[in-house]
Design goal:
By secondary structure, the chain is mainly α. Helix content is 50%, strand content 10%.
Length: 107
């Protein structure tokens, strides 16, 4: 997560022992935290190039573009992650991002 507001919010909620939902964020007038491509890659443990590959193939989370910069809203990442979850272990081996592995697109 990047940015002064995001860092302040993380520190504040950690110190208070609470979490703030997206609804709370909007009600408090705070902007939702945005992650960079590097933040998302680090979180997922994949190379930055993989995030760009997923985006160019329409497989990554939706993002906001600011000039040449791409940023991901935390809520969009959460939605995308939920959609990547297997229905049961090994059940979805030939769908989604796994197709990129078979096609040589995984990095």
């Amino acid at each position: 997560m990047t940015g002064v507001v995001a860092g302040w919010l993380d520190g504040f909620t950690h110190l208070c022992g609470m979490s703030i939902s997206q609804d709370d964020t909007m009600r408090l007038g705070l902007l939702e935290p945005l992650w960079s491509v590097g933040d998302l890659a680090a979180y997922l443990g994949v190379p930055v190039a993989t995030i760009y590959d997923w985006r160019s193939n329409g497989k990554g989370p939706v993002a906001h573009r600011f000039g040449k910069h791409v940023k991901f809203a935390v809520s969009d990442i959460q939605t995308w992650l939920a959609a990547q979850r297997e229905t049961r272990p090994g059940a979805d081996r030939h769908s989604g991002a796994d197709q990129a592995v078979q096609g040589g697109g995984w990095r």
